[in-house]
């Protein structure tokens, strides 16, 4: 079939708050071909990626992504790989390209899987989909008491793992310690505790190392993003001096960058967002590389269940990579994007839908309700 | 002084050709404060970066760059470092950010140097500006005869070094060899010859290795960008097996990524574009790191002389890093952006202007002549 149409939908909450919550807006992709629709989501600044999609050409390595996808043939994975290659070659010099293309790749795989009446994970070679331990992904409370309460609630909901992230964690040692102790106390000893500091220390190994002991005392499963995503030297230093298991990778924009974080950054968990790293096939290749190096693959998801399903597809059948990020504080927008949702069972596990494609059904009403109208004119000609 | 105003100018040739020539359009930045103007250039897809500059906020780490710069105080380098830090923190999750901010950083340094009535290189700590060996940066001819002619012409112009790049080089072994032989024959033995393959081999070490002998037979000074910019493993493998001096870095979006290409990719020449890597201060830090590791710093420039001056500032006083890229086939747009130009002397050397800031005077007429009109509306409100 031919890729006949591509549409981008910019959705947003009425108000965007100054918090780390990535579910406040969304860029949704629809592709059409052969009478079918495929859907994906970019984890991207929507307006920036819309511009990237339709921008006038700058030179042979800075083309609008649209030109490398629309009207192309898509009958099998090989056709998709050709498109991926063309996008990489022709839009290499626009830094936003991976953010924009990732959601398109997911939509194309969804379309192709629907054409073949199969799931995406089967289409890319997974024999089955294994349940994963859902870790509740939440932000720290405003104070240790709030953190304690959030952790207690999640324990009651039967989660077997909880990850706290961001807010002001990492800036004040004693407050950090209080939050950690509160979280561990509320969870008890059995439930896994992960900590995400969102690159707060930049390249400052000392700030990170100072906290090694309090992380260990509270038995964390991993420390996520201590540094900027490409600060491999700093990652490897912290890993070897503290022996803390490190996690990272949500900002990886390519297969190579994820391999580098494993090879040189020495992370033990590589966290890949299908809406950032290049899509599901990129994730699949990263997963193969990671597991050969005894590194667990983990989805990164802080948006909709469309993105949740997409980001789990690359390691669907793995029994080595056992965790899955499960966002818990979604704004209504991100929840409403899909009609169906991935739900946790009584053992705290989640699994992919069995339906074709990524298995998520788009809620057309949400596309209207949260719609942001964008018009872009270049020399008076409307490009979007 | 306060940063009172920031303006972005999208300029373009009337027609953009499907060639690797990056001088076909431009994104120029003007900043104003204290009655002075500073100018810089982003090496970026203009529309994508304009969107990045004014996009609605997505969350606390995905803000429009404008908000982190406009109305801020700028009285010294430390103020600038605060702005750089804020941009990095608040726009970390928009991949386009370094492309967009780099030109702004240059404009801010230009403004600050003008306020201090000094050159940028003096302001950032260089005691002097040393002449560099200008290497003529050109594209291969359409056939070996054309390449021979281009090389002969450059020799007559007294260049002491020439770099050929791109077009279809890297796809056909025997044609590649013919181009190389033609270039070397025309240049003779004394003139340095560099080759730029523009990441043509992606991650394919074999395709690169096949050509090791013909590169050596023609005595090249470096092989530039054999692989994608973050394919460090592939870089290091080619470096160790072929012993070819490798060069790369034009796509480095951060200080860390340049350090990685040195540490892990084992390049011998790190090529940094002030309009991509974060600006001139980023370049300066990369230069210090590179030279400590016995790696030469080189500017990357394939656009205007505004960018040429900006990209040489970070290593102005170095006597270890001796080469400078000198673009030779600029479209009229890129030439016309500045009223003055950096010219080569009779020994094939170039040096920075002595005037305040980066020393380049913007041609107001060119801003009008090549102007591309952009209007962006979000929910009917005009953001640009």
Report on the architecture of this protein.
- Two copies of one chain form a homodimer.
- The first copy, chain A, is of the alpha/beta class.
- Chain A has two domains: 5-119 and 364-382, 2-Layer Sandwich (Enolase-like, domain 1); 123-350, Enolase-like C-terminal domain (TIM Barrel, Alpha-Beta Barrel).
- Helix content of chain A is 37%, strand content 19%.
- Chain A has helices spanning 46-54, 66-69, 77-90, 97-115, 120-123, 144-156, 173-187, 205-209, 212-217, 232-242, 255-263, 280-292, 305-312, 332-336, 364-369, and strands spanning 5-12, 25-33, 36-42, 132-139, 161-165, 192-196, 220-224, 246-248, 269-272, 296-299, 323-327, 349-350, 374-378, 381-382.
- In chain A, strands 4, 5, 6, 7, 8, 9, 10, 11 and 12 form a nine-stranded mixed sheet that branches. In chain A, strands 1-2-3 form a three-stranded antiparallel sheet. A two-stranded antiparallel ribbon of chain A has the order 13-14.
- In chain A, α12 (280-292) links the parallel β9 (269-272) and β10.
- In chain A, α1 packs across α4 (97-115), α3 (77-90) runs antiparallel to α4 (97-115) and α6 packs parallel to α7 (173-187).
- The longest helix of chain A has 19 residues, at 97-115.
- The mean pLDDT of chain A is 97.
- Chains A and B meet through α1, α4, α11 and β13 of A and α1, α4, α11 and β13 of B.
- β13 of chain A pairs antiparallel with β13 (374-378) of chain B.
